[in-house]
Amino acid sequence: MKYVLVTGGVVSGLGKGVTASSIGVVLKACGLRVTTIKIDPYLNTDAGTMSPFEHGEVFVLDDGGEVDLDLGNYERFLDIKLTRDNNITTGKIYQAVINKERRGDYLGKTVQVVPHITDEIQDWIERVAMNPVDGKEGPPDVCVIELGGTIGYKIFSPHNDSGILDAGDIESMPFIEALGQFSYRVGPGNFCLVHVSLVPVLNVVGEQKTKPTQHSVRGLRGLGLAPDVLACRSTEPLEEHVKVKLSQFCHVPISNIVNLHDVTNIWHIPLLLRDQKAHEAILKVLELQYAGKVPREPKLAEWTERATKFDKLKTPVNIAMVGKYTGLSDSYLSVLKALLHASVAMERKLVVDWVPSCDLEDSSARENPEAHKKAWKLLKGADGILVPGGFGDRGVQGKILAAKYARENNVPYLGICLGMQIAVIEFARSVMKLCGANSTEFDPAATSPCVIFMPEGSKTHMGATMRLGSRRTYFHVNGCKSARLYGNATSVDERHRHRYEVNPDMVPEFERAGLQFVGKDESGRRMEIIELPSHKFFIGAQFHPEFKSRPGKPSPLFLGLIAAASGQLEPLLQRSCSNLTKTHMNNGKVQIRKLYPTVPVKSPLNSLVNGYYPNGTGIHT
């Protein structure tokens, strides 16, 4: 097994996740099988209880793992399926060590950070790296490890001239020590360290400065890790003399210094790595060029075509994203990427209009009339409306108003998780005239509880107590839009993350009023997909289809939203039904799924996310 460790220095937000994913793409294009691990030094066991404002979205895996959003990048870039064990946190490591201590596994020894915590980290990496993630048998060839946080620099204290590490470095220290030991444990030729650093330009002098990277590498060496490859982030391509200076002072060959400058979309990043022969540098350090399995030149024709088409798209499609975390686009990262994948497939330039749901409410008209007016203007000017998942009652009334506007004005609507529940509540209030209709999440004493707490859930423990992971949905209405978008499948597997569900006792009443529940779970009592058959496109899904969307394989429901918003829904549905199909057996039940062609891309992507775009809309792939 070969290991590539990706670390970051100078500042956070440089794009280590995209860099690690892109390295994996290039190595996979060389014919190698790749897996990934993300290390998060925080004490939380997982990301499940963390605020989206603080840490971005919680990405959900097939096995129900609630993990860091970077694992979503890995899955999308590499088209693999990871498990919860591919996300290591300080909480998981300490929990594992404490459990061993309680069982007496350490035979009475004093349990310490070194060697017990550091050994557990190394054992965890070695164990998880051997698990296949690409659907094939046997272990992968290379494991790409991303170490979260920023390491390799110091901040200075007035009481200590030698400098002190910042809080982020303090919590990372056991992992840094463990990885230093790990490089010796696996031996030369099996470990390559790629350090992502910043080469800024001071506006006063207009010169690319190498000193921050020099200090970062010096600090990294002081911690026992020496970079084999430097990935330098910058706004413009590095000048040759800057590379020479970095090589001289950081002790890294010029051929191993890679420049990742700002690009129009992040699908260009694997191409930048390939063009600068980063794969050759990594393969040489890992001695893969001399191993029995000789890697080929990376084949990235599909990536090249996608990145080029993306830049050429012109015709816009405006989607109003109505949520309460609109101040941080990372809160809806997978939703944005799924929208982008679909817009590329439908040859439209994605424009996302962020609509804070609170600003749509009547109270906002009194308290902040300008924000209220702006929010409604964006909503009414959109080609389609999307209400993503969420928790809590803040902004719920605004989401209900958005669903009502979409339903009454025949505007394409996609509701995800809470967005589906919102649509059900709005239908009950407006169409069925049930004034007391609500979710027990927002009103435990609701007279018409349309959405209720799931009986298997926990009201005392928040972490990992929801309905999580991949679950099967069976279609119950022949010819419904959702089934046609999925290629007339009889069932689909999608990922879930919710505590509340549509009240099954009220379903017959809803259906008599015209709301169809076209998708249900295996019991037939848990509602998974809703549709309004008389509407152009009004669909709600209890699951999260965005988590399985891929650049070349967009999520069918997102594809439907973009198609409806751009006047292409009927041709898409006809194409879906006429495409070649493939069948396979799954637990004795035949599923029929369509093969969706890879189509062009587009979007006004200027985003700050991952540092790969100039300032702009905050949309990213």
TrEMBL record:
Database matches in CDD domains: CTPS_N (cd03113), GATase1_CTP_Synthase (cd01746)
Name of this chain's protein: CTP synthase
InterPro entries: Class_I_gatase-like (IPR029062), CTP_synthase (IPR004468), CTP_synthase_N (IPR017456), GATASE (IPR017926), GATase1_CTP_Synthase (IPR033828), P-loop_NTPase (IPR027417)
Native organism: Panicum miliaceum
Stretches assigned to the CTP synthase N-terminal domain: 2-288
Record's catalysed reaction(s): UTP + L-glutamine + ATP + H2O = CTP + L-glutamate + ADP + phosphate + 2 H(+)
Record has rRNA-binding as a keyword: no
Enzyme class: ligase
Superkingdom of source: Eukaryota
GO term, biological process aspect, one: 'de novo' CTP biosynthetic process
Ranges that cross the membrane: none
EC number, as in UniProt: 6.3.4.2
Keyword Nucleotide-binding: yes
Annotated function: Catalyzes the ATP-dependent amination of UTP to CTP with either L-glutamine or ammonia as the source of nitrogen.
Pathway participation: Pyrimidine metabolism; CTP biosynthesis via de novo pathway; CTP from UDP: step 2/2
Alphabetical keyword list: ATP-binding, Glutamine amidotransferase, Ligase, Nucleotide-binding, Pyrimidine biosynthesis
Family: Belongs to the CTP synthase family.
Gene Ontology molecular-function annotations: ATP binding; CTP synthase activity; identical protein binding
All copies of domain Glutamine amidotransferase, residue ranges: 329-562
